[in-house]
Amino acid sequence: MRARSLVVVGAAFLVSVLAVHAAAQMPEPWVGTWKLNTAKSKYSPGPSPKNGRIEITAVKGGIHQTNRTDPLTGPSTTSEITAMFDGKDYPIKGNPNADTQAFTKIDDHSYQVVSKKAGKVTLTAKVVYSPDGKTRTTTQTGTDAQGKAVNNTIVYEKM
């Protein structure tokens, strides 16, 4: 009887270790490729872009993110950043509204991004991922590179 109990306890321990290991290997909900849904997004000031795409990969303690935006008129823009979720400023390339961004994780499905230009806060964004991992909603407030007030709700869907 004692040997059988040890086998059951050992098997339960192994299952729990494997479950913890599998959970540790699961990517954060924000990892992946996201396509802008212009119909569900609201841009103020407008207009909304024609297309947008975000590609996010995990790096230890943070993310590498590439944003591509195709405006209604003019050339496309691409910005790129590698940042940790530690609230520190990291340089961003290709963003006309910011030269640094600071990422702070709020919980398992959301984080905040503070964008700065020449050390001055320009935009603050809260990024929230749906529980099913299929939708990403960014609420942005602040000012753009021209000094206009920004109040955007930007919805992306996982590709």
Question: What's a concise summary of this model?
Answer:
By secondary structure, the protein is α+β, with helices and mostly antiparallel strands.
Describe the protein's architecture and organization.
The protein has 159 residues and is of the alpha+beta class. It has one domain: Lipocalin (Beta Barrel), CATH 2.40.128.20. It has a ten-stranded antiparallel β-sheet with strand order 4-3-2-1-10-9-8-7-6-5, with no helix packed on it. The protein is globular and about 75 Å long. About 8% of the residues have low confidence.
Helix/strand order, N-terminal first: HEEEEEEEEEE
Largest sheet features: 10 strands, antiparallel
Roughly how many Å apart are the termini? 53 Å
> Per the principal axes of the C-alpha atoms, what is the gross shape?
globular
**How would you name the CATH homologous superfamily?**
Calycin beta-barrel core domain
Low-pLDDT runs = 14-25
Report strand order across the widest sheet. Answer: 4-3-2-1-10-9-8-7-6-5
Supply the CATH class. Answer: Mainly Beta
Structural class: alpha+beta
How many independent structural domains?
1
Overall CATH architecture: Beta Barrel
Q: What is the average of the pLDDT values?
A: 88
Number of strands: 10
Q: Please tally the helical runs, counting DSSP H or I stretches of 4 or more residues.
A: 1
Strand residues, percent: over 45%
Helix content: 10-25%
Rg from Cα: 20 Å
CATH topology: Lipocalin
